[in-house]
Specification:
With 203 residues, the chain is α/β, with parallel strands linked by helices. The protein has a single domain, classed as NAD(P)-binding Rossmann-like Domain (Rossmann fold). The chain is built from seven helices and four strands, in the order H-E-H-E-H-E-H-H-E-H-H. A four-stranded parallel β-sheet has the order 1-2-3-4, with helices on both faces. Helix 3 links the parallel strand 2 and strand 3. Helix 2 packs parallel to helix 3. The longest helix is centred in the first third of the chain and has 29 residues. It is globular, with a radius of gyration of 18 Å. The model has no long low-confidence stretch (mean pLDDT 94).
Length: 203
């Protein structure tokens, strides 16, 4: 019985046709910045659909064929926002936690079949979409936004060697501080306070 996929997965599969795909990068993402209740529930559902549900279908469809051929690579772009709760970015951050854990699980499952999977946990990255959000500086500890090329170069060096990684030296230090040094409550508070200040959010 043929699996039933989301409409987006079906459309992508139809557009590609019989072309062999050996390397998949899932970098599609939606985000909403602001209080959870200040937008319609449909916004949160759309974020979950784009960041998680569609990804499941594409991994199943294209990843499954890579496993059959015993060759391939998959990059799942995720975020350090997903390492703890992130106030005013709650749904996006939750999907990014999902992305990392999914990639790590598939890294283990698919590695014996010749398919490398990696989760790239990026911080702020100077893409046009990020720049257009007009973020301010949250604190002196906040690393500068990375250039996209630097994130890509590090990811390509890491794939096949580890199930997930944090890109950029500054992001590595901040993640170590928040995950290994600070109490969980303080890490969550720092994220929320930082978002509130960066985007001038009022409760």
């Amino acid at each position: 019985m043929r699996p039933r996929f989301t409409r987006s997965t079906e459309q992508i599969a139809a557009a590609i046709g019989d072309k062999q795909i050996d390397f998949l990068v899932y970098n599609a993402a939606l985000s909403y910045i602001g209080p959870y209740l200040a937008t319609d529930i449909s916004t949160h559902k759309n974020i979950a659909a784009a960041n998680a549900v569609t990804q499941l279908g594409l991994l199943y469809y294209f990843g499954g064929r890579m496993v059959e051929r015993k060759r391939g690579g998959v990059v799942i772009m995720t975020s350090i926002a997903g390492f703890q709760g992130s106030g005013y970015l709650a749904t996006y951050a939750a999907t990014k936690a999902f992305n990392r854990v999914l990639a790590e699980g598939l890294w283990y499952e698919w590695r014996p079949h010749g398919v490398d999977v990696i989760a790239c946990c990026a911080g702020a990255t100077a893409t046009p979409n990020y720049i257009n959000t007009n973020p301010g500086k949250a604190s002196a500890l906040e690393p500068p936004a990375q250039h996209p090329e630097a994130v890509v170069e590090e990811c390509l060096r890491k794939i096949g060697k580890t199930p997930s990684f944090v890109s950029g030296t500054g992001n590595k230090w901040v993640t170590f501080l928040m995950q290994r040094i600070l109490p969980r409550k303080m890490a969550v508070k720092m994220m929320g306070d930082g978002m509130k200040k960066s985007y001038r959010i009022k409760d």
